[in-house]
């Protein structure tokens, strides 16, 4: 095995190897035998035939430290999405309080996403070059303070609420861009797939808890503003834990690269990476659908029940929270099932084909589109049937989140990953949920203006606008199929670049191959 150094002391460790394969700990750059600190260690350099019986005692602490770090990062991701969808959980109350229509309500999410996607490439650049956990913590502290402040905005200043949502988007952009790359550097292969699955399970879990927290806190406190004061407190605590317990993980083989490429070079290479481009376009369609459905489905189902005369129209707050609670619970459960289904299906399909990752995503997207269409058919007569269709559609839609992140780790070299995540985030939001909530609200208002004002047309107009989502999801399935065509070639190129950047294997690379990574 290779020799280790301690980052804190700078001293050289002992070169060791274990007789049993199961006793070795995999890292992104190799296997680790001897550990001088529980968190910061460099990748091994050489193999040794010497066996030391005391090494296994130190390895479990290293594993636990890395799993704990991934757990803290995942909790932070939960809070990011909890804060994002708390507003959707009390959307009807916000409309009543500020007196805004569907398009105005949709603007809250659109402004949030627009600021998010503009900030993401900036944080991607910073994340590839500076201390990542400091950037993450500062981002959490920033959005926590802004969210808490937004709960005190008077009713005549709706524009100020819109502005604060934009500032929250900047804070959350730092987290979503950088956190996956730390996990990618702490784990490898199937263990990385598992940990990224946990991290991305936080998206539906946090989203669902956002609906539940918003509606429940409002119901208990009797005021929707209190819903915006929960996530900031939890955010401050999580940011502090992140600073203390998350290690400063090495960026793959960064310390072994002969030269760091420029940002322009990184962007040019990412655009030439066809697997990356098509998977980013597919991710954009997922963002479009989840952004629109997450913002409007609870209100759509409420209007469906008004038409069915099972509930009374809400003229003055506080309004019913039942649909937000049910949709939030469904989102949490389907997120858990979707991540498990996606990760399990991918591991099984990898035994059959090396293109398993994009193919599993494509099947999930196409199946999801069918059930999303059925939601609008079932909602006219039965809310229960609509919820069943939502359950199936969301499970399939959520199955590709962790897989898409894992694909990016395979086809992009380590020193470009934060930039790649940032660019993918920017693209997916620009083409996806940056405009979809507002677009759905705008189409709904447009249809209502051409018809008579009634609860029936409020329901139908929103349903017709939301019918755009399943067609976009089908398009995403096509993009994943296109990704499958180039996945193996791009993965091999990334592996070759990593190999050529390693001084112990670079001798086997041709001059042209070595030049391509500089």
What does it look like?
- There is one protein chain.
- The N terminus and C terminus are likely disordered.
- With 518 residues, the chain is an all-alpha fold.
- The chain folds into two domains: 53 residues, no CATH class; 440 residues, Up-down Bundle (Growth Hormone, Chain: A), CATH 1.20.1250.
- It starts with 24 loop residues before the first strand and ends with a helix.
- Helix content is 71%, strand content 1%.
- The longest helix is centred in the first third of the chain and has 35 residues.
- The chain has 18 helices and two strands.
- α1 packs parallel to α6.
- A two-stranded antiparallel sheet has the order 1-2.
Which features characterize this protein?
Growth Hormone, Chain: A; mainly alpha; two-stranded antiparallel sheet; globular; 18 helices
**Which percent band covers the strand fraction?**
under 5%
What is the domain tally? 2
| E-strand count | 2
Output the structural class.
mainly alpha
* Helix content percent band: over 70%
In short:
With 518 residues, this protein is mainly α. It has 18 helices and two strands. 53% of the residues are buried.
What is this structure's SSE topology?
Elements: E1 25-27, E2 30-32, H1 55-89, H2 91-98, H3 102-127, H4 132-150, H5 158-186, H6 189-221, H7 230-245, H8 263-272, H9 274-307, H10 322-349, H11 356-378, H12 383-398, H13 401-411, H14 417-431, H15 436-449, H16 455-466, H17 468-501, H18 511-516
Antiparallel strand pairs: 1-2
Helix pairs in contact: 1-5, 1-6, 1-7, 3-5, 3-14, 3-15, 4-5, 4-7, 5-6, 5-14, 6-10, 6-13, 9-13, 9-14, 9-15, 9-16, 9-17, 10-11, 10-12, 11-12, 11-17, 15-16
């Amino acid at each position: 095995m290779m020799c280790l150094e301690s980052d804190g002391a700078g001293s050289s460790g002992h070169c060791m190897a274990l007789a049993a394969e199961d006793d070795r700990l995999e890292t992104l750059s190799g296997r680790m035998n001897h550990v001088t600190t529980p968190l910061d260690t460099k990748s091994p350099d050489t193999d040794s035939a010497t066996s030391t019986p005391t090494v296994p005692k130190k390895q479990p602490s290293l594993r636990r430290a890395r799993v704990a770090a991934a757990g803290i990062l995942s909790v932070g991701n939960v809070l990011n999405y909890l804060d994002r969808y708390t507003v959707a959980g009390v959307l009807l109350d916000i409309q009543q309080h500020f007196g805004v229509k569907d398009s105005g309500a949709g603007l809250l999410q659109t402004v949030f996403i627009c600021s998010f996607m503009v900030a993401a490439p900036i944080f991607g650049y910073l994340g590839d070059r500076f201390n990542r956990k400091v950037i993450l913590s500062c981002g959490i502290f920033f959005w926590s303070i802004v969210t808490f402040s937004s709960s005190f905005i008077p009713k005549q200043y709706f524009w100020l609420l819109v502005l604060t949502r934009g500032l929250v988007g900047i804070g959350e952009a730092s987290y979503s861009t950088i956190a996956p790359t730390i996990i990618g550097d702490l784990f490898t292969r199937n263990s990385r797939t598992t940990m990224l699955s946990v991290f991305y399970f936080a998206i539906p879990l946090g989203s669902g808890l956002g609906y539940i927290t918003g509606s429940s806190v409002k119901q208990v406190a009797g005021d929707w503003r209190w819903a915006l004061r929960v996530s900031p407190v939890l955010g401050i605590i999580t940011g502090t834990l992140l600073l203390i317990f998350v290690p400063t993980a090495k960026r793959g083989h960064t310390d072994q690269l002969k030269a760091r490429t420029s940002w322009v070079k990184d962007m040019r290479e990412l655009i030439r990476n066809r697997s990356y481009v098509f998977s980013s376009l597919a991710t954009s369609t997922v963002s479009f659908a989840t952004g629109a459905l997450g913002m409007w489905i609870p209100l759509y189902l409420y209007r469906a029940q008004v038409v069915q005369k099972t509930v009374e129209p809400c003229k003055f707050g506080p309004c019913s929270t039942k649909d937000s609670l049910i949709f939030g619970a469904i989102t949490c459960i389907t997120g858990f099932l979707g991540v498990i289904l996606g990760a399990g299906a991918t591991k099984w399909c990898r035994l059959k084909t090396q293109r398993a990752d994009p193919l599993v995503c494509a099947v999930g997207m196409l199946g999801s589109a069918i059930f999303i269409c059925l939601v609008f058919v079932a909602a006219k007569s039965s809310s229960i049937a609509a919820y069943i269709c939502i359950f199936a559609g969301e499970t399939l839609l959520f199955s590709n989140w962790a897989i898409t992140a894992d694909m990016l780790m395979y086809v992009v070299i380590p020193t470009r990953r934060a930039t790649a995540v940032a660019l993918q985030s920017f693209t997916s939001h620009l083409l996806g949920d940056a405009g979809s909530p507002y677009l759905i609200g705008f189409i709904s208002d447009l249809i209502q203006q051409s018809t008579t004002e009634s609860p029936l047309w409020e329901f139908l107009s929103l349903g017709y606008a939301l019918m755009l989502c399943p067609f976009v999801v089908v398009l995403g399935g096509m993009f994943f199929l296109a990704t499958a065509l180039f996945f193996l070639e791009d993965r091999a190129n990334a592996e070759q670049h990593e190999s050529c950047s390693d001084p112990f294997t670079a001798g086997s690379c041709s001059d042209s191959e070595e030049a391509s990574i500089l």
